[in-house]
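Deliverable D4.2, example record:
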Amino acid sequence: MQHFELTKTVNEQRKKIHPHKFTLWIAIGSIIMMFAGLTSAYIVKRDQPGWTSFGIPRTFWYSTFVILLSSLTMQMALKSFKERQMRQYRILIIGTTFLGILFIALQWAGFMQIWHSGVTLKGSGAGQFLYVIAGLHALHVLGGIIALLVTFFRAFGAKLRNYNSVPIEVVTTYWHFVDLLWIYLFIFFLWIH
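Output generated by the structure prediction step:
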């Protein structure tokens, strides 16, 4: 009887979502609502007189490919960690971190092209909305890069004897989220122009 109750308790614990994952999902829900509000406001405001449109820089296509590739390497890193293939895990974390930094560099180059084309913070609200939306996404990607760097340093730390995959799963989920968020914003920018 006691063994049955213990097994039942263990199974109930496995069904519960980890507190860190729950917190991440709450944060993701809040971020989705914020970006939905900002892009909706952009759609409403773009019919105002003097609204300046802008072209999509080719660099955004490259950055989209880079962030999609980084999502793939992050997923492979998680798989390697769970399979205890630590050398491969470390290589994939290095690759994902590099791709994340490359994504930010390509985004910076793309937004500098838009800025030099005359869409700035002055004048119509297009530039203001664009840079607020892009800036907020950049902050979320930067948060992901910081999480990747922490994961990177832990991967090479001497105390890697704890094979708890929850932190890697949280970072992976967040990284996939900022990837999907960029895809949404990229399609949005293509659609409105």
